[in-house]
Write a structure and sequence with these properties.
Number of helices: 8
Strand order of the largest sheet: 1-2
Order of helices and strands: HHEEHHHHHH
Number of domains: 2
Structural class: mainly alpha
Distance between the termini: 36 Å
Radius of gyration: 22 Å
Number of strands: 2
Amino acid sequence: MEIIFQIFDFGVVDAVLNDPYFLMVMLAEGPTQKIFHQSMLDENKRVQYDVRDQNAIVPAVTLNEFYRILKCKSAKEMWDTVEVTHEGTNEVKRARKNTILQEYELLQMKQNESISDFQTRFTHIVNHLDPLGKSFINKDLSMKILK
């Protein structure tokens, strides 16, 4: 998903992966949000990164996801919400990784399965392990196929 934000600017990627930049000014009463037109050009640009991110995220989500992110105040908050929705928490990721690893270890070609179907199933399993932090070198993958 980061590749979508890179279309705009690398500052946009930074805004969605880190906390957004808010225009703040210190007054006697405490910190308050600065008015947009009273701020410096580079400050305005940093604020716009978060707005661009939000405008990239909203059309990319389903209606149900949209209702989850509706109350989010920044693109970072939206991103984190969508990420947990799709990838789950760390415990869910760990459980998925263990399940898929077990599936990989027990993988065998079925009796009436074509080589093409087996290769598709094999690729599917390996591709699901990569984002979960488990990757294989080509030699290991080749040996698994040959077994």
